[in-house]
Write a structure and sequence with these properties.
mainly beta, Neuraminidase, 4-stranded antiparallel beta sheet, 5-stranded mixed beta sheet, 2 helices
Length: about 375
């Protein structure tokens, strides 16, 4: 969906009004005024069509007044959030870049992704440390974005997903089956999940769970993950030595998705001709406030929904229902919590839903 915009808050596509319906506890709507559409509830932070390239040099040349809406954000995805800010991974003209901004759209940092031929997954911690994968190899960058990896270790199996936190440990999920290891960058490995053929695993997984697409470690150290089962993407949690499926009433699946994982059985996407990290067109899992998780999946009528999920009760609270949005590699849907706010990408734009988590964070 190629979009042009009449104002910072207007959304017009090819002269046709595009209606995006959002749900935050109650219905949030769009109202037409003066031949434009004004969004009630979700603020448009960036159209993605700015003239400034997403690199440190380009942003510095643009001057101190440059905002997120001035940055050219192609294929932008929300990657992580920190203290009052969030980081986007976006495609620059030659190679990808990182852009960090506040929920008000102020730019804090920008840098070109420092190396190519990274054909696997990518994840970033709140402090900016990130890890990327290629086949069985996991590389970590703990310093400045422009630096090359500080460490490079080999996992036991091809990696389909990685989760990096602030404690120096990584979670790696198997690209060819339901395996999850916790790794230190000295190569020390703890086998959290594996099929029964691996007697060293702490938890035995049914091989029908399929490859790991995304994973996240909760504050209480439990691991939540999305796997590609025969019935499509499914959300699970490793809890008290068992794997439990997380779903809502009547088997509602908050990560329902059409398509295959972006990373193949060998831990790469596209073989030798691929470069840069690869992501699903809808990022299925992200950390949420209060030990919950943010999910993205197809709801009723195949409309993309961003939800907040309680992995214990199975309660699913829809934060944003994106009617008219068609997720793709070029215009992905992704989301992250930044304090009380939800920041998400959709239709090639970056949005802020103010106060989406105020109730939880105040509790």
């Amino acid at each position: 969906m190629t979009m042009a915009h009449s104002t910072r808050y207007g959304v017009i596509a090819g002269g046709v009004l595009v209606v995006i319906t959002l749900l935050v506890g109650s219905v949030v709507w769009l109202a037409a005024r003066d031949a434009s559409i004004r969004l009630a509830g979700a603020e448009l932070l960036a159209r993605g069509e700015g003239s400034v390239r997403p690199s440190r040099q380009s942003v510095e040349r643009a001057g101190p007044d440059v905002m997120l809406d001035d940055i050219r954000l192609l294929e932008a995805r929300v990657l992580s959030s920190g203290d009052g800010d969030f980081t986007l991974f976006t495609q620059a003209p030659v190679q990808p870049a990182f852009v960090r901004a506040t929920v008000m759209g102020d730019i804090r940092a920008a840098a070109i992704f420092p190396w190519g031929l990274t054909r696997g997954s990518l994840d970033m911690a709140p402090d900016g440390r990130y890890a990327t994968t290629d086949g069985r190899f996991v590389a970590e960058v703990a310093g400045d974005w422009s630096e090359l990896p500080d460490h490079d270790v080999e996992a036991r199996r091809a990696v389909g997903a990685v989760d990096v936190d602030t404690d120096g440990l990584l979670l790696v999920g198997g690209a060819a089956g339901p395996t999850i290891d916790m790794m230190a960058m000295d190569g020390t490995t703890r086998r959290l999940l594996a099929p029964s053929a691996d007697p060293g695993a702490e938890v035995v997984a049914d091989k029908r769970l399929g490859p790991i697409v995304a994973l996240h470690r909760l504050p209480d150290q439990r691991v939540v993950f999305v796997s590609d089962t025969a019935g499509g993407f499914r959300l699970h949690v490793i809890d008290d030595g068992l794997v439990r499926r997380v779903e809502g009433e009547d088997g509602r699946n908050p990560v329902r998705f059409h398509g295959r994982p972006p990373i193949g059985w060998d831990g790469t996407a596209g073989g030798v001709w691929a470069d840069w990290p690869h992501f699903p067109s809808m990022a299925p899992l992200a950390p949420g406030p209060g030990g919950r998780v943010i999910t993205i999946g197809l709801g009723t009528g195949d409309v993309p929904e961003i939800s907040l999920v309680d992995v214990d009760s199975g309660q699913i609270e829809v934060l944003a229902r994106l009617k008219g949005v068609e997720p793709s590699d070029e215009e992905p849907v992704s989301a992250v919590a930044v304090g009380n706010d939800l920041v998400f990408t959709a239709s090639g734009c970056v949005w802020r839903l103010e106060g989406a988590f105020a109730r939880l964070n105040q509790g």
